[in-house]
Amino acid sequence: MLQLSALTPSSHWTWGADDGVPSFSRDTHWAWGLVFITWSTLVPPGLSRDTVLGHLGANITLTCQDKVPANATVLWQVEEQGSAGGWARRLAEGNMLLLRRLRYEDSGRYSCSVGSHLLRSLRLLVAEPPETPQVSCYRRSHDKDILCEWPQQERPSPGTRAMLWLKRRFVAENATEQRCRYFSKARKFVCRVKVPPGTDDTKHLVVSTCVSNSAGGSAGKDKIITLSGVLKPDPPINVTVEALEKAPQRLRVNWSYPSSWDPRFYWLRFQVRYRPEPAAAFMEVDQVTTTWLDIHDAWRGTRHVVQVRAKDEFGHGAWSEWSQEAVGTPWTDPRDLTSEMEPFSLQFPVEDGTYLVTLPPELFGEDHANSAGGSVMEPSTHPVASPYAFLVTGGSLLLGIALFVGIMVRYRQMWWTSGQERTKPEGEGQHMLVPLGLPLPTLNDTPLLSHSAPSAPGMLHITHSDYSSSGQ
């Protein structure tokens, strides 16, 4: 007994056969219920008793009769497809016919006979029971139909039919019925469903699916959706990456709206991700509202991979798939290309005999070009940890420490040597200190001026003793 869960009201599902290919049908009411279908190993419901079901790739044995006269020769024949009556091709002799590794092309009517007397005719169907649908639905824009699809692990048997029904939930109305198509390259069924007029974007819709073929049928689990919830734009197109002149760490990314989305009525917001080709992880920039973006932290001289995806401006639905990859390399100064071909020295002499070390400016320089990027609201960047950056930083730090220690040792040696030359042992090569001034004259009691005779009244007389006392 095969039990199928299906949508059924006070009415029911019916299993019919159209030229040996079963199909589902239903009436106009809607409810929940269970459908029970009798399952036979060789004869599915709706097929005649002389039909034999074979599985793809399996072996099967067809028996003509239980007992055949000993002297009779049984001949098997198969009717060629498309032939209008008559037996076309002989197969083998014997009461049993073994068919190995069945193919879909082996389906047909087989018959056994003794001479011109027909003993039995069997119809062989090579088919696999259909896979249970696991449907997902999306809408490429606000004014497009709903597309529902589900993948197939194996190619469905010829004559497989897939149907989809769509109706508003909790509303007494007929469901919209749609035949689904199988795409062999994509290996999936796709159904295009018209949106019922006047449907609110936030109201719930019920999606039901069912698949049937000669080997049986299967109904998928019902899916509840809303029109706004299944919005999924197509990926952005025309993604390009350009270098900006004299900006070795910047890239300009441009893209266009997908043709299925009309920006005159609704806008999209975008997400950009990029990575230098040596890195495995991407860095992402969110909430981009324009169709261009400037990347300011690109790796110098390295090719970058860039992708863009889109979503409804109000955040409804899901992100689109990522666009095709676009690649670009930041601008490179031609002088840098020339210097890379020449030997590079890390040291140069200075006046005091020591050496100083110069490092490439790329290790410390930053791009100071002042130009605005894309209109970004609350940009959030998720950096990728780079082992190259850690190696450069660590090497620079160790080199700086080593140079500092070397310079200090060098200056200490020079200072010590000059000090030794100026300082000698005590007592070696010393001389008595001799004053360089003239000897002072000796003083005696002889007056410099002799006493003279008294002079006229009113005259001032100065003696040597008075001069000496005044000098004291």
Which strand-content bin applies to the residues? 25-35%
Helicity, as a percent range? 10-25%
Give the integer mean of the pLDDT values: 75
Strand order of the largest sheet: 5-11-10-7-8
In angstroms, what is the radius of gyration? 51 Å
User: What is the SS-derived class?
Assistant: mainly beta
Gross morphology = elongated
Total count of helical runs of at least 4 residues: 3
Main β-sheet: number of strands, strand sense, barrel status?
5 strands, mixed
Low-pLDDT runs:
1-43, 343-351, 353-359, 363-384, 426-434, 448-472
Distance between the termini: 149 Å
Number of beta strands? 29
Please give a structural write-up:
The protein is mainly beta and 472 residues long. The protein is 11% helix and 33% strand. It is built from three helices and 29 strands. The chain has helices at 334-340, 387-422, 464-471, and strands at residues 2-7, 14-18, 21-25, 32-37, 51-54, 60-63, 74-78, 89-93, 96-99, 108-114, 117-126, 136-139, 146-151, 161-168, 176-179, 181-183, 188-193, 205-213, 216-219, 223-225, 237-243, 251-256, 268-276, 283-288, 292-295, 304-312, 326-328, 347-349, 355-357. The strands form nine sheets. The protein has a five-stranded mixed sheet with strand order 5-11-10-7-8, with no helix packed on it. Strands 14, 15, 18, 19 and 20 form a five-stranded antiparallel sheet that branches. A four-stranded antiparallel sheet has the order 12-13-17-16, with no helix packed on it. Strand 2 and strand 3 (21-25) form a beta hairpin. The longest helix is centred in the C-terminal third of the chain and has 36 residues, at 387-422. The radius of gyration is 51 Å and the shape is elongated. It starts with a strand and ends with a helix. Mean pLDDT is 75; it is low at 1-43, 343-351, 353-359, 363-384, 426-434 and 448-472.
